[in-house]
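[audit] Reproducing an earlier prediction to check determinism. Same input, same settings, fresh worker. If the tokens differ from the archived copy the diff job will pick it up downstream; this log only records the rerun itself.
[audit] input (148 residues):
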Amino acid sequence: MSPEYGSRVMVSGRQSGFGLPMAIFVVTVLALVIAAMSQLQQGSSEGVILQMQSQRAFYAAESGLQLSLNLLLPPDGSSGRSCTASPFYSHAFNPPPGASLYGLNNCSVMVECQLTTVNSDTYFTLTSEGTCGSGTDSARRTTEVRVK
């Protein structure tokens, strides 16, 4: 004889299952893995942001140096700015009115000039400090050049 459709098999005594504890264990392990991956992603994102700020600060410092060299030794041969001014050059990079994006937005640069004479040769040392961001997301880079 064959069992009828829909009939139930009766088990005597208590039933014990393995499925529910295993499902709870798997869900818990997956939740821990997802939480760890989330923390890793957040740390990576913060690192990228600081790296970008650092590069922007470096480019601000480089831009300040290039402009300061142009002020100190003008390409047309005219007399340049005196090295005695302190700071020699400073600028805050802010977007022009109506512009929404600007590469060095929220960055600033300050350049100092120092005059040195060695064996009747005059050397100018320009030290530029670029700063971008504020608070914990800020970066500061310094570059220096010496010209004769």
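[audit] rerun output stored. Observation attached for the diff report: The CA atoms of residues 106 and 132 lie 6 Å apart.
[audit] end
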